Amino acid sequence: MDRIRAAADSVASSLVERFHATRSLSEALAKPLSDADATIQSMADASPAKWHLAHTTWFWETFLLRDHRSGYDRFDERWAFLFNSYYEAEGPRFARAARGMLARPSLDEIRGWRGHVDAAMAPLLDRPELAPLIELGIAHEQQHQELLLTDIKHAFAQNPLGQAVYPQTLRPAHPKQSVGHRDGRGWREHSGGIVRIGHAGPDFAFDNEGPAHDVLLQPFALANTLVTNAEWAEFVADGGYRTPALWLSDGWAWVQGEGVEAPLYWRDDRWFTHEGWAMRDPQAPVTHISYYEADAFTHWAGARLPTEFEWEAAAVGCDRAAGNQLDTSGTVEPVGGTALFGDCWQWTRSAYLPYPRFRPAVGAVGEYNGKFMSGQFVLRGASCATPRGSSRASYRNFFYPHQRWQFTGLRLARDI
User: Fold this and answer.
1) Are 413 and 302 a contacting pair, CB within 8 Å?
2) How far apart are CA 2 and CA 335, in angstroms?
3) Over 50: is that where the pLDDT of 6 sits?
């Protein structure tokens, strides 16, 4: 874990430094994994750690080296079929649900490919006209670092031995939040009005974060803290998973059909972490919950989920580097606090839809976000697995309402 912290804490001011810091962090996250660890795939939504290392390398080789370095030859022409994710413009690809069958290339071979691509990228990193695409590549790899962490956690949780992914993780030094209760928490109020939403300016953002536009908000308040494990245990004990009146129709069908009785990774008074099974911390934010669960809890608590616009309005001016994120505490688990960022992604009640006048980027990279704007909900903030440099107020994460293997939690909202 010390190696992970050192890689993530490296100060990278230039694009060249940030490229190498990002690539190094991916290597550090995978360092403790054997070839077998890095090959397994526990479900169709997750991918093997080895695939994440390869796919991010495919991205650099395809969209930078192939397209912008004259005379570059692919490391292995066959691998593009294996490690393309969803880019239709790049041709056919290996089935997502079968990625765990890719015993070859080996983890060491993929590491060799990564080193080859890193070296080949050197002449491109100082070309100003490529800076936006390099920024996208860095942000893309940071997203896959978080996916690597959550996917390997899900894979290890399937093993009855309950072994640690990252043993002897350092415990956080900053104080945790007090055990919350829905009737006694603090609130941060916002007067509403016309607010500017979305990214604007020269700094990097994904295309789905813009264009910036005006939104009218009614007065509202956000809770100062995330909902905790202790509060969720009250919800469970009070029959929250057995009371249909709390649930959306689709959510109740999901609970009944899947036999859901608690957040993912809960077992009695324990939960599964990157350190293996441990006593569940009642003060830590609840995580690994679906949109359906988050919505049901708000009804039980007499509150609601915020809209994504309310969340962003409240986040303006907040320190996006605050809170428990991947490179701040030495633990890849939620610990709690009063920062708006960190610990877990926060469900909002907003459907993932394009902003007014949204246009996807030109070319294959235009498939990155826009084509997924259907049937999903927006999450805001950042999680304990999010690299600190990739969090910002306008960032729009998105998942389907039943998904919960990511570090997903909630912050209550209410009208005032």
Assistant:
1) no
2) 18
3) no
Q: Radius of gyration (Cα) for the chain, nearest Å?
A: 21
Average pLDDT over residues 219-225: 97
Cα gap 106→83, rounded to integer Å = 13
- For the ranges 135-139, 286-290, 359-363, the lowest mean pLDDT is seen at 359-363
235 within 8 A of 292, measured Cβ to Cβ: no
For residue 99, report the phi and psi dihedrals to the nearest 5 degrees: -60, -30
| Per-residue pLDDT at 4 | 47
**Block residue for tokens 């939504």:** 45
Per the DSSP assignment, residues forming a β-bridge with 194 are 216
pLDDT at 172: 44
Distance from CA of residue 325 to its chain's centroid?
11
- Comparing 175 with 287, the larger pLDDT belongs to 287
Closest alpha carbon to 82 in 66, 65, 61, 64 = 61
Cut 0.90: pTM above it: yes
What is the distance between the alpha carbons of residues 127 and 91, in angstroms, rounded to a whole number?
28
Residues 282 and 323: their CA atoms lie apart, in Å, by 18
> For residue 89, what pLDDT is reported?
87
For residues 311 and 218, what is the distance between their CA atoms, to the nearest angstrom? Answer: 13
Mapped onto helix, strand or coil, the DSSP state of residue 27 is helix
Rounded Cα distance between 411 and 294, Å, is 9
Q: Which CATH architecture has domain 187-415?
A: Alpha-Beta Complex (3.90)
CB-based contacts of 362, cutoff 8 Å, min separation 6: none
Distance CA 244, CA 253 (A): 9
Q: For the stretch 244-257, what's the b/e string if a residue is b when 16 or more beta carbons lie within 10 angstroms of its beta carbon? A: eebbeeebbebbee
